[in-house]
Amino acid sequence: MQRTVVRAQASPFDRPAPDSVRTPLVGRAPRILRDRADLMGRLTEAVRQGGGGIHVLHGMGGCGKTAVAQTLFNKLSGRDDRIGLWVNASERATLRAGMLAVAADRGAETSELAAAHDGRRASSDLVWHYLDYSAQPWLLVLDNADDPSALEEGTWLRSSPRGTVVVTTRVGGSRVWSGAELHPVGVLPLQDAALVLHDLAPAAGTPHEAETVARRLECLPLALTLAGSFLSRQLLENWSMSDYRRHLDENPTELIDRGAEPGSSEGNARQLVGRTWEISLGTLADDGIPECEALLRLLSCLSPDPVPLSLLRPLSVGAVDLGAVEPPLPGDRVEIALRGLLDHSMVALVDVEESGEVVRCVKTHGVLLDSVAAAVPSDQRPLLVHGAARLMEAEIPAEAGGGAAGRRVRRLVPHVLNLLRLVDGRDTATDVVRIANSLSRHVFESGDYQAFLHVAQTALSVAEMHLETDHPLALTAGHDAALALFRVGRFEESEALHRKVLDGRERVFGEEHPETLQSFLSFHEPLGQLGRVEECVAALKRAQEVRGRVLGENHPDTLYARALLIEYLAVADEVEEFDRVGPETVALCEEILGDDALATVTSRHNYAFGLHRLGRHEQAEPVARRALSDRQRFHGAEHPLVLSATILLSWILAERGALEESISFARVAVSGQERSLGPEHPYLLTNRTGLAVSLAAFGQKAEAQELARLNLPLCERVLGTDSPVTAEIRSLLVAPE
After folding, report:
1. How far apart are alpha carbons 283 and 511 in whole angstroms?
2. Residues sharing a CB contact under 8 Å with residue 268, sequence separation 6 or more, in sequence order
3. Is residue 229 within 8 Å of residue 196, measured between CB atoms?
4. How many angstroms separate the CA atoms of 438 and 431, rounded?
5. How far is CA 402 from CA 410, 641, 673, in A?
6. pLDDT, average across residues 594-620
7. Cα Rg for the chain, rounded, in angstroms?
8. Going by C-beta distance under 8 Å and a sequence separation of 6 or more, which residues neighbour residue 428?
9. Average pLDDT over residues 452-479
């Protein structure tokens, strides 16, 4: 009879009362709630103490706020004579209907409820009267309150001495929460995230495999639950967690959502990663900020890694002109769009520290970005990629100078790599490969050779797929990839690619073009390391001669070629020419370019090496110390070229009998090369061998043999069993104690 009265007089916004307010109508709670012990402890204590507190659990969609509230509800309902009350606060109508059902549960008369329904009595006052005078203490959960204004307009959110209110919401920054205690709910730690997968699908893989999947899903509880459910319910397929991880790279959103219960795609969008964030974007659009969707689509062109806020400056976005995207994103609306995404927990602000500098960035969850990217219309994607590429370009200095600037742009590497992955035609390829080439030069100067190789090889692959092989951008990417291969110790591959690029540049540009001259110069490096010293010296002399003819003998590029030649004149035992060219080049660089030019720093370093190579160790020591100081000032402490100067000084000191100081410098160099070059780089293996030999000579035989045992199998695999370095390290293990 009560239902009939209410329906007859209800407004269009009213709904029938929920089937229950004593049970969370949100599905089953997790069997084990992972990594929420501290939060559960604080909430449990607050509820048991009573006192009318309001607690707001806030975080992005899918992070498990409802699971925490449901676990708390199940734990405390029925304890200490306390009742639990659960209201769906996702919409104004369900909130109102649920709260009136709470009043009915607490004793409100049918006539009172009818008066509230038809506007003759204040609804929220009625509800809170019965909550305040409840015979039993209570816990009230207002779930999915993602529109705080709905709570504010009806003053539905109040405190009471008879119970505790827990709110779950995506909106952490709202004035409605004034006076409430806020509890952020984020993603899980990696180990707990892996346990969620194991809880749901224990037979699908090892703990390590579970961690791999959890890391790819960035530990988002909703995605983990769906993945685990999929793996546990397979009938016709028998994927392991490793299989699942491989398939995630193909269409992550579609695969994750296959773990949902049948029929849930329309019934509960909050349980699907492909739909849950549409709720927030719809709310923001209704609030007059449709640009939030455009901004999120723009961010979906980038990596989940932190994005510097400087990339999204209104002037920068305005200059890119994203008016053609749908919805448009004018520069003067970026600030309000970003604030909207922040308020709805769809992005977060993070501080990233690098090289002593703190940079404010915006961070978006990877699963969210995958979901948003999958929903971008095909005709919009090139516009967004083009816009993101131009924003990235504005962040990259025009000239690569190394030092702090090079270190700063390294944070753009994952974003440019993602843009390269999205290239699907010639127009976007031209934009993105150009920007990748610009970035890779800075990354090279910073000394991060592994990242340099990744960017350059990816840019080369994209350029060759969407542009011609001899396109200038493809040739630049190829040159950088060849340079990177050399720096990471893959000398044969570097030589082959350098030769291919040099042939292409001569064919396209001619012999005297600056890019062809660049290839002439770089080609010498793998030749020298492969023992083809005559070809190496010939390449350097050719580069110097052409540069001198085209640019002038005293041009910085010509002097840089001469600085590089110094080293290999010594290696080739061209002593007379070394004695003429070495000091003369150092003096010219100092006089014409100054102490802080790369050519000057390089000439001193190579001259010190040449003196060492020719056995003039006393003369070499002060030059090597100056070279190390130069490198540190020019590149920064951890740069590979600083480590190269460090190991050179160590060699010279060892030859001069200063073993203790030599070992000290060698330790620094080897430790740094382990971090910067990787565990199997030929330079590292050679220098670790030298350190072991010096330790043995200094009487520290136990440490020397420990290093030898570590180094020998690597030397045999990388350098070969017949290499002199391998023989030297082997001798330390067979030598008598």
Report:
1. 61
2. none
3. no
4. 11
5. 11, 12, 19
6. 95
7. 33
8. 382, 385, 386, 389, 422, 466
9. 95
**Start-to-end C-alpha separation, the chain:** 99
Separation CA 24–CA 209 (nearest Å): 34
Residue 458: strand, helix, or coil: helix
- Average the pLDDT over 560-568 and give the result: 95
List CB contacts of 578: < 8 A, sequence separation 6 or more. Answer: 566, 569, 570, 610, 614
| Cα gap 705→509, rounded to integer Å | 54
Say how many CA atoms lie within 13 Å of 669 toward its Cβ. Answer: 28
pLDDT of residue 7: 34
DSSP 188: P
- pTM for this model (two decimals): 0.84
By DSSP bridging, strand 163-169 and strand 54-58 are parallel
**Residue 620: burial class (beta carbons within 10 Å; 0-12, 13-18, 19+):** buried
Return the pLDDT at 263: 58
Give rounded-to-5 percent helix, strand, coil for the chain: 65, 5, 30
Token duo for residue 627: 């070279």
| Residue 142, helix vs strand vs coil | strand
CA separation (Å) from 440 to 386, 411, 412, 477, 649?
A: 19, 12, 10, 9, 30
**Alpha carbon of residue 458 to chain centroid:** 17
Q: Is the per-residue pLDDT at 424 higher than 60? A: yes
Q: Give the dihedral of Cα atoms 361, 366, 368, 370; nearest 10 deg.
A: 130
Per-residue pLDDT at 495 exceeds 70: yes
Residue 423: other Cβ atoms inside 10 A: 25
C-alpha distances in angstroms, 234 versus 27, 30, 227, 246, 367?
21, 20, 11, 17, 22
CB count in 10 Å sphere of residue 221: 28
Q: How many CB atoms lie within 10 A of CB 681?
A: 21
Q: What is the mean pLDDT of residues 303-317?
A: 93
Tokens 């549409």 locate to 278
Report the run of H or E that residue 4 belongs to, with start and end. Answer: helix 2-9
**Alpha-carbon dihedral sign for residues 693, 694, 697, 701:** negative
Q: What is the mean pLDDT of residues 372-379?
A: 91
- Compute the distance between CA of residue 216 and CA of residue 200 in angstroms, rounded to an integer: 17
Amino acid at residue number 694? S
φ/ψ bin of 32: left (φ > 0), alpha (ψ from -120 to 50), beta (otherwise): beta
CB within 8 A of 696, min separation 6: which ones?
704, 705, 732, 735
Model pLDDT for residues 231-277, shown as the tens digit of each residue: 998 877 889 999 999 999 888 999 999 888 765 544 467 778 888 88
Q: Which amino acid is at 110?
A: T
Task: Compute the CA torsion angle 282, 288, 293, 299 (nearest 10 deg).
Answer: -140
* Three-class SS state of 496: helix
- The contacts of residue 83 (CB under 8 Å, 6+ apart) are 22, 77, 134, 136, 137, 138, 139
Q: Tokens standing for 276? A: 């849950």
Alpha-carbon span 206 to 104, nearest angstrom: 51
Confidence band for 402, pLDDT divided at 50, 70 and 90 = low
Structure tokens at 39: 């939060």
| pLDDT digit string, tens, across residues 314-369 | 999 999 888 889 999 999 999 999 999 999 999 999 998 876 778 899 999 999 99
Q: DSSP for 653-703? A: HHHTT-HHHHHHHHHHHHHHHHHHT-TT-HHHHHHHHHHHHHHHHTT-HHH
Residue at 503: amino acid letter: D
Short-list 546, 548, 545, 584, CA closest to 563: 584
